[in-house]
Amino acid sequence: MTVREHLEQAEYTMLAPQAQKAAETKGRCREEVDNDVRTCYQRDMDRIVHSKAFRRLMHKTQVFLQPEGDHYRTRMTHTIEVSRIARTIARALRLNEDLTEAIALGHDLGHTPFGHAGEFALTQATGIPFRHNEQSLRVVDILEKDGLGLNLTHEVRMGILGHTGDQIPETLEGQIVRTSDRIAYINHDLDDAIRAGILTQQDIPRDISYVLGESHKERINTLVMDMIEHTVRTGVLGMEEHIANAMNDLRAFLFERVYRNPVAKGEEVKAKAMIAALYEYYLKNPNKLPADFIPQLDFEGIPRVICDYIAGMTDKYAVYKYEELFIPSAWQIH
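User: That's the sequence. What structure does it adopt?
Assistant: Structure tokens below.
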């Protein structure tokens, strides 16, 4: 018996009956020979971590565009925080940690440069709603590995797609990531806003702090522990109503004071303008796209390929391309 087979067998002893078992996966879009050491979900984790799209997350905006300071979150650190929260919950509920982590690591691979500002700009430019969860699935299915995709398992793919939006993941592990994503960004965006001087701890409404706690640590602990305890007590994945309401109230508070704050979001107008300009340039000059994107034009159409290219950019690369295309270079005498 291989190491993988031992691991798959152990899941039936260690995991809860409702946990997704690696041996019961619905499989991949393209059949592959099983690995002797790793389960299918462990392989998916590794494929995501080794992907180019994952590495680019370190240079993509979470909330604050190019902040001055080393301690603000990026899309990469957000992803790691989601992964840790989700694994803690999955472990406590005896669900599949490997599946949970694979979904968490891949959930934001399709995010644009400049966060949701880039998402909005591409929606405006194309006239078609750009949804980062759908783009994340497109990244792992098609765009990685020069058009071959990562060929992930069905459960990971649907967890990535369903981490936000109307489609709820079919596995409990995917549903945990969906909630963990919200737990993570609400709390770390609040922490970053306080660090940036946009909010103070005293600005947080008292009724929210009374329920969730006074500090970053207390709020996350309250939400995670309540989700675990409520699920164990009721058998239904979720939180107590007053805890869930407090989390939603905190999210609404952040929308009012941070996500729509002209100080925090003042540079987004420029970011959107850059994305729009890049899109228009490549629409008129598709031959200027990188060589590896040119073959896709015949199959995907110009707007789709341009959207893929821009969505994959980091913040820094988008600025670089804009400067290269639209800002005159200094004259040099050789």
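The chain has a mean pLDDT of 94.
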